[in-house]
Amino acid sequence: MEIRLTVNGSEVVRDVESQELLLDLLRDGLGLTGAKRSCDVQVCGTCTVLVGGKPVSSCCFLAADADGQEVVTIEGLAEQPVFERLEDAFTRHAALQCGFCTPGLLLTVDALLESGELTDEEEIKRSLNGNLCRCTGYRGIVEAVADLAGVE
Amino acid sequence: VTTLETGTRSQIGRSHPRLDAGEKLRGQAQFAGDLLVPRMLHGRVLRSPTPHARIVSVDTSVAEAIPEVVCILTGRDLADIDPYFGHAIKDRPIVAIDKVRFHGEPVAAVAAETQAAAAAAVDAISVEYEDLPVVATVADALAVDAPLVNDGPIRPGLFHGLGELPEREGNVCYRYRIDRGEIEAVFARADIVVEGEYTFPSVYQYAMETHTVVAQVEGDEITVWASCQHPFLVRAELADLFCVPVANIRIVVHYLGGGFGSKSYTKMEPLAVALARKAGRPVRIQNRVAESMVTTRRHNMRCRMRTAANAEGRLLARDVECWFDTGAYADNGPRVTATAGDAAPGPYRWTAYRVDAACVYTNTAPAGSYRAFGATHLQWIGESQVDEVARRAGIDRLEIRRLNLCTPGEEVRSGGKPLDADLIGDVEKVAAAVGWEEPKRPRVGRGVSVGLLAAGAHPVSSAVCRLEADGRVVVLVGTTEMGQGPRTAFAQIAAEEIGVEPDRVTVRGADTRFTPYDRSTGASRSTTLAGLAVQRAAADIRAQLDRVAEASGIDPAEHVALMRRHFGFAGGELIGRGEVAPVGTGSYAEGPVFWEVCVGAAEVEVDPDTGFIRVLRTATAADVGKAINPQLVERQDEGATMQGIGNAILEEMVYEDGLLLNDTLLDYRIPSFEDLPDSMTCVVVENGDGPGPYGAKGCGEGALAAVPAAIVNALADAGVPMSELPLTPERVWRRIQQLKEEGTWET
Question: What is the enclosing helix (H) or strand (E) of B648?
């Protein structure tokens, strides 16, 4: 089937299989490899991208369901003005190690900052629970996000 | 150790921002699965549905007829080579030959133009199995007349380092024994004897990037882009398997999405190469999580331990027997067993101790390295017995450690390196960080733990520094970056020696064709050993610059002008060379390179109605000699702490009759944001007592051994002594009910 969507601001028209996953379309079809594959069951969050401004696990999201939607991947977010703040906070707090979960995490954080939900540290932890990180132990990430959200 | 008279050390001990942060944050860092090699095919693996069976027949005809399927590899395709590998023991076939020995073992592999065709072909392969009796557990393996998981002679691998290998003894893969002093006599006259039986679960390392390999075979040239920690050791094993010179094999490692030991030594690379060889085109194999779980895992273990002391709490003797389940193939089981054996007594002044550690084959997934192996298995057991001795002797749990811990310079292991750390100082620091002396609420407990981990592996590393005509520096070093940050540390070291800013130093990934030899990236060795090689290579450049400066009268800090004078134009480059080789033989017996400190403290709260425990505070000592980059040191310890919480409380691969029951992250839970303790402290200890650059020594593993032990001790302090991990709510609740029945539960 043919789908039309916007990916990082550019219009994309593609013929996709009905069962094709958004993650495969992005990685194999469009060469946007910033979204990573890991758990395949919507637990780890490393494949997170924004669809219509909301974070989704692209490993469990049909490409067909992105028809008519606006999709933003890390490659797109990195071009937006807001990215500079994210980059600065994550770098200063050393809130990354191997970097495999980092793109998905940043997209989640970006959406949460946009929504204004991050009012305290408990809320930050609860809201980020859908993004796993095996390297950092989370401490640095919570510090970076608290800094971005203006949480003491 | 090279020390230049460069005045103040402006780059060392500075938390320079990670040099790879921008690339990683922007999603530009390339992992093996992100690479596109021209004409690359998709590989998929057919895996055994059963733990132990004879392969009666494999019919690939239907699968081969599927459009876009290029070829299918089975054991029959490996008749021209000796298809068994294993750095310790050569027992693992590239793909199953005649038999499958664990649930998930590769039976065939497909190369196809598309993922979909590869998946369809895997489903279309028909295999007839004849079930064999399953050796599901260590007890099964050791039973009289147990079926043999592996038979035939034990063949040593290229890097076994195990001395003379004995004859095969049933299902025992490797045995490590220590016997010092008159143990039975000491136990006979002891006032206090603590003893117990303990179990440690099978654990999945879960590097978020699963094992991924792209392989290309062109004539007798083999190129592999892989998620491997030790490219030089993989290179050697591939050369051995495929009968080509080492120089014909090129292993490229850009970035790893975590490793933690799961990508140490050779894993999926031989299968990818064999498939690419048959296909005549490059092939990518990318494991799914369920596949990586059975590619390697942490050993489950049973242990029996007893500790003897006198009435004043003076520790006298320890007796340890432990059996590690190494699964169907040895992987790193022998080294895990030996390291566990060394960790088992704990760093105390014993009159006598005896260790009998063995790993045995079973029909489960092969078990190998995972961060702080051996020490994580044993420290919680030994330290819980030290706490129990303290209780019975009526002395404080810090006091018993002050009384008995080894001090710097004392023997840790006969013939090995003496203690090179201040353990008493370390444990006092972490205890203070969790409020050791503060009053506690009911059901809150605190614990500390102390241990050592033999670190550094074989001490061979080399590095090359190139100073370019524009004054920029390139460091070539074979260390792999899997999150721990060696590129930033190396840039700081090179910058310090040459006298430039770290952001003018480029450190890229490992490529065995261009980066000089580094034995491995693991065992907390990189800053200490590869860092020393980088320091020497950079000092070599500095010496060359100084010679030109002296001859020319140009300011020694004017690198570009010096280079121009030396080469006579705006080109050329200075090349510095750094090497680390062992003093003595570098053998395990003479080692380790350094003793990695495993010291931690925890405060936990238990809910007696649910058995749920919450970790409130943790503290670990990063006893690193000298922190090249303190922030990265702290972050390493925090990551290890969180994995320690996972190992202690959450994680267990559940096997039933050789079948893995929880092979997804839905039912294998690792720590998430909400498991973060309220307070997590890393105390960086810098006593300058390491063998690395500026007195540095490695870190990043010790906390994983220390934290589960501290949690177990804290839970016992809260009234619930446990002898089985993980500390799931059910297990803790049942223990509380048992204590109530025994009348020992304090309400």
Answer: none
Placement of tokens 């010179």 in the chain: B245
**Which residues lie across from A147 on neighbouring strands?**
none
First to last CA, chain A: 50
Residues in chain A, how many?
A: 152
Residues B255/B259/B261/B262 CA torsion (nearest 10 deg)? -110
Cβ(B57)–Cβ(B128) below 8 Å: yes
Using the Cβ of B15 and the Cβ atoms of chain A, whether some distance falls under 8 Å is answered with yes
Strands of the A10-15 sheet, one edge to the other: A10-15, A2-7, A70-72, A48-51, A54-57
Strand ranges inside B706-747, DSSP E: none
Neighbours of B158 (CB within 10 A): 16
Q: Determine if residue B396 is left, alpha or beta; phi over 0 gives left, psi from -120 to 50 gives alpha, anything else beta.
A: beta
Look-up of token digits 């380790």:
B592
Q: Identify whether the C-beta of residue A4 lies closer than 8 Å to the C-beta of residue A64.
A: no
Q: Report the share of chain B in percent with pLDDT over 70.
A: 99
Touching B: A residues 6-35, CB under 8 Å: 17, 24, 27-28, 31, 33-35
Whole-Å CA distances, B331 to A101, B90, B157, B265, B293: 28, 9, 10, 8, 14
Tokens encoding B314: 């003076």
Q: Is the pTM of this model over 0.90?
A: yes
pLDDT (tens digit, 9 = 90+) per residue, B344-401? 999 999 999 999 999 999 999 999 999 999 999 999 999 999 999 999 999 999 999 9
CB contact (8 A) between residue B27 and residue A74: yes
CA separation (Å) from B19 to A92, B59, B490, B521? 12, 51, 10, 19
**CA pseudo-torsion sign A152, B18, B688, B701:** positive
Please list every residue in chain B whose beta carbon sits closer than 8 Å to the beta carbon of residue A144.
none
Element (H, E) at B99: strand B99-100
Residues 6+ apart with CB under 8 A from B573: B466, B467, B468, B469, B563
Residue B221 is predicted with a pLDDT of: 97
The strand pair at A48-51 and A54-57 is best described as: antiparallel
Section B310-331 average pLDDT: 98
CA B341 – CA B60 distance, rounded (Å): 46
Apex CA B18: angle with CA B13 and CA B23, to 5°?
A: 170
Judge whether B482 is closer than 8 Å to chain A, CB to CB.
Answer: yes
Q: Distance between CA B102 and CA B336 in Å, rounded? A: 20
Contact B208 A132 (CB under 8 A): yes
Mean pLDDT of the region B45-64 = 98
d(CA B131, CA B110): 24
CA–CA distance, B526 with B593 (Å, rounded to integer): 12
B315: how many CB neighbours lie within 10 A of its CB? 27
3-state percent helix, strand, coil for chain A, nearest multiple of 5:
40, 15, 45
Query: Left (φ > 0), alpha (ψ -120 to 50) or beta: where does B62 sit?
Result: alpha
Gap between the Cα atoms of B156 and A83, Å rounded: 53
Q: Token match 């034995």: residue?
A: B519
Which amino acid, one-letter code, is at B138?
Answer: V
| Chain length of chain B | 747
Torsion angle of C-alpha atoms B237, B242, B244, B248, degrees rounded to 10: -70
Point out the residue among A102, A132, A138 whose CB comes nearest to the CB of B676. Answer: A138
Of A38, A97, A99, the CB nearest to B210: A38
| Angle at alpha carbon of residue B510, lines to B506 and B512, rounded to 5° | 130
Residue of A38, A72, A83, A98 to mutate, interface with B, max B Cβ within 10 Å: A98
Residue A30: Cβ-neighbour burial (10 angstroms; 0-12, 13-18, 19+): middle
Whether B581 has a pLDDT exceeding 90, the answer reads: yes
Answer yes or no: is pLDDT of B584 > 90.
no
d(CA B485, CA B21): 10
